[in-house]
Amino acid sequence: MHELSITQSIVDAVCEQAAGRPVRTVLVRVGILTAVVPDSLRFCFDLTTAGTVAEGAQLEIDQPPGTAHCRACEKDFALPDLVLLCPCGSADVAVTSGQELQIVSMRVG
Amino acid sequence: MCGTCGCHGGPGEGGGPGLAVPHAHPHDHDQVGESPSGAGETITLEQRVLGKNEELADRNRAWLARRSVVAVNLMSSPGAGKTTLLERTVRDLTGRDRPVAVIEGDQETALDAERIRRAGGSVVQVNTGAGCHLDAEMVEGALTALDPDTGSLVLVENVGNLVCPALFDLGERSRVVIISVTEGTDKPLKYPYMFAVADLVIINKVDLLPYVDFDPDQCVAYARSVNPGLRVLTLSATTGEGLDAWYEWLEGRA
């Protein structure tokens, strides 16, 4: 249940930036290749924000899909999981999206 | 559009779609990132969720580098043989060139720390309680308590878990994942995140291979499908088979 620590990091950062103002929404970007489960994040978010300026805030989660670039055939392709294999058969690939784990923005006031 | 009154104008201007008649503007239209959908201000953060842990991990890395200490993070599911491998490693390497110390991570008890101490190693136990992984802050505290000699090797035994520890940088030099032959051959595909961040995979308990249907070659192929550059060692911490290659690998981290 690493989502609890991750949520704690999000709430700590958000409360620091809010500087006492009530937080209404928080937007995070969690790529599908990150091993972070959005439903768990939401569950932990409600627990973690209790008693803070972010209590009752809405958590919005943007989930970029996994994509990769193949260095052999020079094509970009969809990567549904971490098995690094291009449809051309090459394993010489670089993940280009899906590993994001960012706090994007928040709305206060 | 002004989030407070609905008009499109600057200070002093009125008559937007939100109000039919010209109106005064006591509020500020120059506020950065004002929300279009209601009162409030949008603040852009664009910061890494685990940024604080990563900062602390970098601090640990710098602290370790100043003392020429090499830290290695050992991760596996419960029962793969981390502590047995550490006991053996501490016993075999103590008295050689490089002092060895251990940080033991478990949810509860100091049982593993006692095993390491009996094997002759200096050790600090970290109990994570409800936590399922070590983080950089816990390791910072443990390193301070351990106070390793200059030039030491610090082996960090993470909490037995193949998911959560993968996300938390501790400031270590290398990451080792241990899998034992009594587990499923397909574990690298079921827990790809852990295998994706590893520098080395150890396949442990190879002395039991005649009794189980574990396929080491297939397991390595699965692990390399998520991490093509992965190094692999097969050994038995109980019989000692393959340990020399493990000690050579550790020596190479210095």
UniProtKB/TrEMBL annotation, chain B:
InterPro entries: CobW/HypB/UreG_nucleotide-bd (IPR003495), Hyd_mat_HypB (IPR004392), P-loop_NTPase (IPR027417)
Any single Pfam family the record assigns to this protein: cobW
Taxonomic superkingdom: Bacteria
Signal peptide: none
Family the entry assigns: Belongs to the SIMIBI class G3E GTPase family. HypB/HupM subfamily.
PANTHER family with a match to the protein in the record: HYDROGENASE MATURATION FACTOR HYPB, HYDROGENASE PROTEIN ASSEMBLY PROTEIN, NICKEL CHAPERONE
Name recorded for this polypeptide: Hydrogenase nickel incorporation protein HypB
UniProt organism field: Streptomyces doudnae
